Amino acid sequence: MNAFRAMKAIGINEDKVKPVLKRLLKLYDKNWELIEEENYRVLADAIFDEDDSKVSDEKENRNLSDAVFYVCCSKLHSFIIWHVFLMSREKILLMKQRCMMNLSDR
Question: Domains in the chain, ordered, with CATH?
Answer without folding.
Answer: 2-77 (1.10.8)
